[in-house]
Amino acid sequence: MHKTTVGKPKQKVYHRVHELDRVMELQKKPLLILNLKSIIQSQKTESILLRDLEKEVGFVQKWNYMAVIEKYHPIFRVVGGEGSRSPPAVTLSEKAKKIASLESEALVQMEPVLVRNLKKLLMLSVDCRLPLETIQSIATELGLPSDFKNSLILKYPQFFRLDEFNGRVYLHLENWDSSLAVTAREEMLPPISDAQLKRGKKISKDGNFSGPFAFRLKYPIGFRPNVSYLEEVQRWQKMEFPSPYLNARRFEAAADPKARKRAVAVLHELLSLTMEKRLTSAQIDAFHSEYRLPARLLLCLIKHQGIFYITNKGVFSTVILKEAYDGSNLIDKCPLIKFRDNFLALMGRNESSSGISPSTSEYRILT
User: Fold this and answer.
1) What is the pTM of this model?
2) What does DSSP say about strands 168-173 and 129-131: parallel, antiparallel, or unpaired?
3) What does the pLDDT read at residue 255?
């Protein structure tokens, strides 16, 4: 009598990249510092009583902020208390105030970038409109000010319009701008020489290919694809596909490989429009219907792990555009990110340094 065994489900290996996991780890204290800076600056006295901090951030988070205040004396200064007639309060140090004063200049430089990116965000949608709440859900990641509805949208009536539809407020694009219908992927394409075209006939060991429809791939160190896999990747890299800025109603992603590749390009473009080239999975999913994203979005991201990286570090699962990072460092920085880096330099240590090895590990996903 033969024994029967229950077959195990097929497993796919997803390789962790510690340097990209560190992107989320490294942002924890900077986020506290920048948020506390904003809280202090929002007060009329440009200081906040320590006893009032709990009202702003909650009881649990208050202790994290207190630890930051105590540790980073070059940024924060406690005044009053201990013999003084006034209760203890926290304010910015003189050096921090000086650097913080440069933020207004960075915001001025950001405005045309934000207007451009908002227009592109709307152009990616099927009707050139998005629910205002969807945009609000990624406002911080885009670099939008908290009052962007009044300070930005209403300032440019020639570009944007707010309308209510089925009980929801939508942001509409007033006029199509064909000059913006070019993706970040296309803008980054290098000129192709005859020698590169000849080399393109050979199978690339890293999956990269010189061509007008190719994506930049960055596979992790531990990922060693076989020849048949690389041949499949090269066929995919060569395959032409419709622009993300063409209306998605014209394509059925479930049935057409070219439409599926277009969906990858839409995700790539969405991440490219954010300041740090990353969004949480929930934030991406909010664009599902307007962008006609794949029904099995997670599997799409996992399949294209040379383009996207999913990290579970931090509070939420986050999708990172791999080509935007060199190790844990963002390559291209907008004026607001540059200002924040300058301010956070007052922390007095190199945030990019860590004892974590840059090697990769892997975990298995059951399918």
Assistant:
1) 0.88
2) antiparallel
3) 75
Task: Report which of 32, 88, 97 is spatially closest to residue 60, judged by C-alpha positions.
Answer: 32
> Where is average pLDDT lowest: 10-19, 109-118, 152-161?
10-19
CA distance 50 to 63: 11
Please state the separation of Cα 225 from the chain's center in Å: 27
What's the mean per-residue pLDDT of the chain? 88
Cα separation, 80 vs 45, whole angstroms: 14
Fold assignment, 104-178: Arc Repressor Mutant, subunit A (1.10.10)
Given the candidates 1.10.10, 3.30.200, 3.40.1350, 1.10.3470, the CATH classification of the domain at 29-100 is 1.10.10
DSSP conformation letters of 45-92: TSEEEGGGHHHHH-HHHHHHHHHHHHH-TTTEEEES-TT-SSPPEEEE
pLDDT at 350: 53
> In this structure, are residues 211 and 237 in contact, taking their beta carbons and an 8 Å threshold?
yes
What distance in Å separates the CA atoms of residue 321 and residue 276, rounded to the nearest whole number? 9
What span, in angstroms and rounded, lies between the C-alpha atoms of 32 and 29?
5
